[in-house]
């Protein structure tokens, strides 16, 4: 049964404020700026909006740890309340990343996910901080990697430097989220499709600094991307899907396509040996199709090969 989710990713270019302004005025200007940023994608009625790392801190303020801390203390939860109102008014989820002062008085670089009613339903604190964050900004590493339940599926998060560490990626390989939300000031290059493929998850990158923000499929294909002209992108993805290897499945896939035609999609990125099959009908689910044609998922195939080695 198709499970389409419309996703908007928003990047950003530098947004600066006059440094002589009172901090309260800086926050007000940032709120107006963010309202304008979201207004670019709201007409498409997305189910989920993902914003880049430190999305609500002016670029020139962030150059100074002391000014950043002062700004964040004055800002408090004002911008989260703004996003909660916008999420509720538009019936969408919003992934809101920023620097937060926690109840235990520690600073965390985190993403809060707001649901369609504007309520916070989960928070991920960056597990792998840069030395600058730790030594200059006094940020504390997160230790948890929660999987957040949304009405369309399960969501995991990663922030910037996290993408370099297998420890976190392997946790998501095991937990198998439907979506990975990546908010960052660093693009990650080849790591983005690698994470998507290794976790068998759709991947949403919201990248600051004018770098491309994109939505990737579980076989690493870019489905939609911001451009040099527009720093946002919106696309729909079907979460009722599975990654399968071509070994031993070629004839089964031909039979599948012959029977179901356009009711099933097979996306081949090339050079990978694996494809993404998606159920495009409400008559059945991807699991029904896999069972009907005895199609072997990629992970099951790799385990069968590994078992063969262990038996030697």
TrEMBL record:
InterPro entries: C-N_Hydrolase, C-N_Hydrolase_sf. Residues 5-297 form the CN hydrolase domain. Pfam families: CN_hydrolase. Coiled coil: none annotated. It comes from the Bacteria. CDD domains: nitrilase (cd07197). Belongs to the carbon-nitrogen hydrolase superfamily. NIT1/NIT2 family. This is CN hydrolase domain-containing protein. It comes from Paenibacillus pasadenensis.
